[in-house]
Amino acid sequence: MKKFLNVLKWWFFGGLCVLIGLYPVTYFLLDRNFGLLSTKTQELLLDNLWNINFYGHIVFGGVALLIGWIQFNSKLR
Asked: Is there a contact between 54 and 28 (Cβ–Cβ < 8 Å)?
């Protein structure tokens, strides 16, 4: 029973991390009046350098959150 609960905790923890890691996908699927982008000026939203940095940040941050929880598993290290 203890082993089952330990596995269940890992699945729950991993599932939450994956959900959080997939959150940046919403910025690609919804219009620009969503979340953080709704607070930005139109001038800033049209700036290519800002867009590259913003979307690069959320993509690589999402990847880090998707795979980051694996480091807590001693068998995989």
From this structure: no
Cα 47 to chain centroid distance, Å, stands at 23
Please tell me the total count of domains within the chain. 1
Give the C-alpha distances (Å, rounded to integers) separating 64 from 1, 7, 55, 58.
32, 22, 14, 10
User: Quick check: 66 and 18 in contact, CB under 8 A?
Assistant: yes
H helices of the chain, where?
2-22, 26-29, 42-45, 48-68
Q: Is the pTM of this model over 0.90?
A: no
Q: What is the pLDDT of residues 5-47, one digit of tens each?
A: 988 988 898 899 889 988 888 888 888 787 888 899 999 999 9
Question: Does residue 3 sit within a domain?
Answer: no
